Sequence to fold (349 residues):
Amino acid sequence: MSIEQAPSQLRRIALSGSDQQAQREKLLGNSAEQFLNNLGGATAIFLEGENTETTRVLCTLLHGNEPSGARAVYDYLHSGQRPCTNAVFILASVDAATTQPYFSNRMLSGKRDLNRCFKPPFEDEQGQLAKDILGLINELQPECVVDMHNTSGSGPAFGVAIKEDTLHIALTSLFTNDLIVTDLRLGALMELSEQDVPTVTIECGGPNDRSSEIIAQEGLQRLLSATSIFEDTGESYPVKIYHNPIRLETIGDAEVAYGKMTSGAVITLPEQAEKFNYGTLTQDECIGNLSASGFISLSAKDHNGKERLAEFFEERDGGLYPKHPLKVFMVTNNPFIARTDCLFYFIGE
Ligand SMILES: [Zn+2]
Fold:
C-alpha cells in the first residue's frame, strides 16, 4: 500500500500485489463504516488489474447519505479479487458519510451539494474537490466512469446519462434496464467527465433497500470482471430509454409536507410518497393536497426552461392530479430535498 499526499482534496491510495493483504485488511477494518473512518476523507483507491492498459473508474459517495456504492466497494476490496482491468474507486464525501450517525448527511452543514459542483467556479472546498475528481479522471483517461448513487426514497434502480449511444447503453445494462437521457445541466459529475469518457450515473434505489445493495454489488462485479464492456456494439440491449424528465419543484423553495398538513406547506404528499416510484401514476391518483395557493406555487419547467405544469397536472378538489399517465422517478419523502431540489422527476407516458 502506498499513500501519496498530493496537494489535493483527494487522497490517493494504491493497493497492489498479493503481499499487501495485511495492509489491505487494516485499511478495511470490519465494516464499511470502519473502512470510511480509516480513509478519513475523500480518497481514490487504485487497484491493479490483469490488464494494466485499461482503467475503469467507479465514483461513489458524492452524497454522504447514499451508502450502496461504498458498501459495494468495501465488499469488493474485502473479497481480495483482482479486477480484469485497473480499477479506481473514488469515495468522495467520506467526511459527511462518517459524521454520526453514519450515512445520514448528504453533505456537511453549510457546504454545497457536491453533485452540483462539477462546473466552474470551483472556488470553495466542495468545488475544489469536484475539480480534483475531474482532474483525476482526465489524468487516468479511463475506459468508463460509473457514478453510483441512491435515490432519497425507496424505488427501482435506473441509469442517467447525457448521451444516448451503444456505449452508454452497454454500461447501463451492467446495472439496470432503465436509462434516463437528459439535456438538463445541473453541475453533476457526468456532465463534464463525459468530455473525457463515457459516463453513467447509476441510481441503485433507496439507501435502505436491500435490492440497492445487490444492484451495487452485482453491477460492480460485472463492471470489473468483464473482459470487454463495449464488445457487442451490435447487440441490442434490453434497456428502455426515457428522454428529458421534467422536475416538479416549488417556486422560491416553498415548503413541502408529508403525511400531516402543516401551515406553511404549499403541498402535502402522503407519508409513503415513495410508492409513486413504482409503476405508472394514473389520472385518478392524488399526488398531494394543495394549499389555497398551492397549485400556483408549483413549477415544472422542461430542459428548455418552458413551464409545463398545466400541461401535465391539474387541481381537483384541493388535490394535485396528473392529467395524463406519468412515469415518475426520484420521488423523495425528505421535505428538505423536496423544497430545495425537487419533489420528483416525471415523463409523460
Ligand atoms: Zn446522490
